[in-house]
Amino acid sequence: MNTPPMIDKAALIAAACAASSRAYAPYSQFHVGAALGFADGTVVTGANVENASYGLALCAETVAVARAMADGARGGLVAVAVIGGRPGGDGEAVPGPGAVTPCGRCRQVLNEIAQLGATDPVVWSVSAHGVLEMRLSELLPLAFGPANLI
Ligand code: THU
Fold first, then answer.
1. Which residue puts its alpha carbon closest to atom 10 of ligand 1?
2. Does some domain include residue 81?
3. Considering the entire predicted model, what is its pTM?
4. Taking 70 as the threshold, does the pLDDT of residue 142 lie above it?
5. Is the pLDDT of residue 5 over 80?
């Protein structure tokens, strides 16, 4: 599956980076930004939102999916960009040597909206050395999703 031409890789990563500046991460000091790119050109971003009860932290990708679905999205997800790291002076994540890929829970959350629209989004994960590119199906093989419940 090819990435549709309307998804600008650099622009989606820039949107994720900007979102990371709005992370609420006073406990981990680790800022994450995610940007979802949809087939119609829509971009929806999220940042991680932590909680004084540490285990209740919401990841940037999950926040982005919740925002998109609360706005009515039920498919069309074609690309995801993720960036994470300690915040720089502007609050934006400064990526370290390892690319931040979506955590296991976020892979499942992303799979829900992807499977609803029968897409296999490309996932761009940023590190200090470049951008790791994978398909969601590579990150979450043999995924369980809404298609299993029919
Ligand atoms: N985090 C994300 O937002 N996305 C990921 O894919 C990995 C982890 C957040 C959760 C927590 O607020 C912080 O990064 C440190 O784990």
1. 59
2. yes
3. 0.96
4. yes
5. no
